[in-house]
Structure formats: structure tokens, C-alpha cells
Design a protein that fits this description.
With 113 residues, the protein is mainly alpha-helical. The protein has one domain (2-111): TerB-like, CATH 1.10.3680. Helices cover 69% and strands 0% of the residues. The protein contains seven helices and no strands.
Length: 113
């Protein structure tokens, strides 16, 4: 479950940039992670979210904890769609841009595809 846990926490890190992670963002993240990656129970997902709030890590630390074999397109989609599900705040957009730069992906091209 380590890879999924890292994905959940990275997604939370993006969604939390505006100061709150809404229920809509969590529901969207849960659905997309289950569709795009391995299945995770809602209970395990919620435990990952709780762990995220107990940690003192920045976005970059969550990025570097991802395995090298991760599907970048899927990660970007989960983060972007989850953060944008309740309206994409400028701080969430900035965090998404950081993720794109980390993976050497043009954020504008990804968003407009």
C-alpha cells in the first residue's frame, strides 16, 4: 500500500494549498485513485489523509517519495482533477505547476489537452 499512500498524500498536499481539503476534493481523489491505480478501501484512504495532517512535510518531499515507475499522466490527472473539483485556487494551481516541473511536463499543455 506504500505507493498508494504516497499518491494519496501528494494529492492531499496539492488540495490543501488553499488552506482546506474539501469533502468534494477527497471524494474526487478517492474515486480517481481507485480508477487510475490500485484499489484502496475508504477506511485506508481516510487513514492516509489523517496521516497527512499529522506530518510536517512539504510538496517536494511527497514528490520525491514516489516510486520512479509511477505513471506521471495519472498522477497529474488525479492531482489536477481533485484540487479543481471544488474550484482550482491559485495556490493549488501553483502546487500543480511544481509537480509538472518536477516531472518535466508543460502544465499548460497538460491542462489544455
Amino acid at each position: 500500500m506504500g505507493e498508494i499512500k504516497d499518491i494519496v498524500k501528494l494529492t492531499c498536499a496539492v488540495c490543501a494549498q488553499d488552506g482546506i481539503i474539501s469533502g468534494v476534493e477527497l471524494d474526487t481523489a478517492f474515486r480517481l485513485i481507485n480508477t487510475s491505480f490500485n484499489k484502496i478501501s475508504r477506511k485506508d484512504f481516510d487513514l492516509c489523509v489523517e496521516e497527512f495532517f499529522e506530518e510536517d512535510r512539504n510538496l517536494e518531499k511527497y514528490l520525491i517519495s514516489l516510486p520512479e515507475s509511477i505513471d506521471v499522466e495519472k498522477i497529474l490527472e488525479v492531482c489536477f482533477e481533485s484540487a479543481g473539483s471544488d474550484g482550482l485556487d491559485v495556490r493549488e494551481n501553483f502546487a500543480f505547476d511544481k509537480i509538472c516541473k518536477h516531472f518535466q511536463v508543460d502544465a499548460g499543455e497538460f491542462i489544455n489537452k
